[in-house]
Design goal:
The chain is mostly helical. Helices cover 86% and strands 0% of the residues. α4 packs across α6. The longest helix is centred in the first third of the chain and has 47 residues.
C-alpha cells in the first residue's frame, strides 16, 4: 500500500511540473473580471454622455478615455492584489523552511494527521509522512498545509496583462459598434454589442468555474442593461 501511494504521489508531482491549475485560473479570473468591468464602465460613460449631448465626437472621446482609464486601472489593481498574494505564498515558504529545521517532529505529526484524517491508518500515515519528509520535506509541508506547490506562485504580471487586455477588448466592443453604425442606429448597436459581450463574459465565467451557464449569461445581460438604464438616467438629470 505504501509503495502504491508513493508512486501515485510521484505521478501527481510530475503532472504538476508545469503551470499549476491555480496559476492558470488566476489569469482566467483576472481576464473575466477585466472584461466585465470594461464593458460596463465604457457603456455606462457612453450612455451618460449621450443622454446629455448629441455630439458624437464628445461621446466617442469620453468612451475612449474611459476605456483606457479602465484598462489601466484594472491592470494595476490586479498587479497590486496578486503581488500581495504571491508575497504571502513566499512568506509561507520561508516560515515552513525554518520550521523544518527547528521543529521537524511537529512537521511529521502535521503530515501524519493530514493522511490520518483521510482514512489512512496511523501507522501507515506515519510511514508516509516520514518518507515524504525525507525525500521532499518543504514540498510536502507546503502541499499539506497550504495546498501550494514549491516554486509555483500566482503571477502578478500574468494577472495584470490578462485584466488589462480583457478590459480593453470588452470595452471596445460597444464603442466600435457606436462608431461603425449610422447615427440613427448607433445606440441600438451599442446596446446589442453590450448584450453580446456580457453574454460571452458570463458564458466563459460559468465554463471556467463549472457554474450554471444559463444563469450566468442572463445575469450578465441584465446587469449590462440595468447599467445602461441607470447611466442614461443620470445623463438626463444633468
Amino acid at each position: 500500500m505504501l509503495t502504491l501511494f508513493m508512486n501515485w504521489q510521484k505521478k501527481r508531482a510530475e503532472k504538476k511540473s508545469g503551470q499549476t491549475m491555480e496559476e492558470r485560473l488566476n489569469a482566467i479570473r483576472a481576464g473575466i473580471l477585466g472584461s466585465n468591468d470594461g464593458i460596463l464602465t465604457v457603456v455606462g460613460v457612453v450612455f451618460s454622455v449621450a443622454a446629455a449631448t448629441s455630439n458624437r465626437l464628445v461621446i466617442v472621446l469620453a468612451g475612449l478615455s474611459d476605456l483606457l482609464a479602465c484598462a489601466l486601472s484594472m491592470g494595476s489593481g490586479e498587479f497590486a492584489a496578486v503581488s500581495s498574494q504571491a508575497d504571502s505564498e513566499k512568506v509561507a515558504e520561508t516560515l515552513e523552511r525554518a520550521r523544518l529545521k527547528e521543529a521537524f517532529g511537529e512537521q511529521v505529526e502535521t503530515v501524519q494527521a493530514f493522511y490520518t484524517d483521510r482514512g489512512v491508518s496511523p501507522e501507515t500515515a506515519k510511514a508516509i509522512a516520514c518518507e515524504l519528509l525525507a525525500e521532499k520535506p518543504l514540498e510536502t509541508v507546503l502541499s499539506v498545509k497550504y495546498d501550494m506547490q514549491l516554486g509555483h506562485y500566482v503571477s502578478p504580471m500574468s494577472a495584470a496583462f490578462s485584466s488589462t487586455f480583457s478590459a480593453a477588448l470588452g470595452g471596445a466592443l460597444p464603442l466600435i459598434a457606436l462608431l461603425v453604425f449610422p447615427v440613427e442606429y448607433q445606440y441600438l448597436a451599442a446596446i446589442l454589442a453590450t448584450v453580446v459581450a456580457s453574454a460571452l463574459t458570463g458564458l466563459l465565467s460559468a465554463v471556467f468555474s463549472q457554474g450554471m451557464i444559463g444563469r450566468a449569461v442572463w445575469r450578465n445581460i441584465w446587469v449590462g442593461l440595468v447599467t445602461i438604464a441607470i447611466h442614461y438616467g443620470i445623463g438626463l438629470l444633468f
